[in-house]
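Researcher: Go.
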Amino acid sequence: MRPTDQLKQAVAEDWQAATTHAFCRELSDGTLPLDKMRWYLQQDYQFVDGFVRLLASAIAHAPSLADSVPAAQFLAVITGPENTYFLRSLEALDATPSTDPAPVTRAFQDLMAEAAASGRYENMLAVLVVAEWIYLDWATPENPPADDLPFWFAEWITLHAGDGFEAVVAYLRDQLDKVWPDLTLEAQGEVTRLFTRAVALERAFFDSAYAA
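Model: Structure:
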């Protein structure tokens, strides 16, 4: 079994809860209350800065140019189409970007900062893999979205599904799988801790958004 599959299997309960969450289901069928979507977008947009820094750190620590190119290409998506999606959606929902993080938002920001500051490529990958793979898992069954979904729902699905995004997740997983065998037991334990924490926070973030 691949190391990333083993990591996922060890947190199966939280993973399942996150990827089949009522928030995701209602977003996909268009019944999610807009107040919940506003809260979600305002909080999720606060991750962009930290995520960009984490991804840039991973690019800088990649073993080779070939290992870094896919991440650099993905970085352009985050700072381009995804950033634009947030701004368009917040405007359409009569909301503004927030700088007041909820406790779960702050916890995930801290986790990304910790992984970036570690200077360890595998630690950065542990958080990046979770952040993207969970979204691929919940969005893929909902893609393509229904034709009558408002764009703030539909585009959030299409941003996280399809061949392009599947390739991003495959790349991140391959990178972590590749470095795993050469890690010490201590380093593998640190990756496992960060991966597990990231999954728990993804579930908690959906819980918080749905309760908003």
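Model: The chain has a mean pLDDT of 98.
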